[in-house]
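Fresh eyes needed here. Kindly weigh in on this sequence plus structure tokens:
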Amino acid sequence: MTGGDATGPIVQLRRRVKATAEEIFELWTQPDLMARWMSPFPGAVDCKASCDFRPGGSYSLVMSSQESKREVTGTYVQIDRPRKLIFTWMGPLTNHVNTLVTLELNPRGDETDLVLTHERLPTPEMHVGHTKGWGHILDHLAGVVEAS
């Protein structure tokens, strides 16, 4: 889905994941769990993560592939376990501008509808790359929870 307004383009991805909202939410809360799936690249996941998981706390990610590396930092804005998580997202691919990511989890029996929205991207050109990167990240997340 594509959108945009005065705050820039919006990336929004939806997935139904075969896991509970609690299981999915937990993967976003601890560096050792984040390191298992947080990668915008296809193939093997190589991520180093750290986080202070609380409103106002910060996190950092270094996600690598054989060809490239992505470094991202941010701050947790809102934590509503296990339904919603809002955090800033900043790095070279956002021109070091603080963008905003909202994760919403809606239980559907033993599955969960996941909606990820990334707002405030500074340029329209960033939309394509972030859509692709978040797609890979959500593929990795689904693979981890469905393999459990």
About this structure: Strands lie at 2-5, 8-17, 46-51, 58-64, 69-80, 84-89, 99-108, 111-119. DSSP finds three helices and eight strands in the chain. Residues 1-6 have pLDDT under 50 and may be disordered.
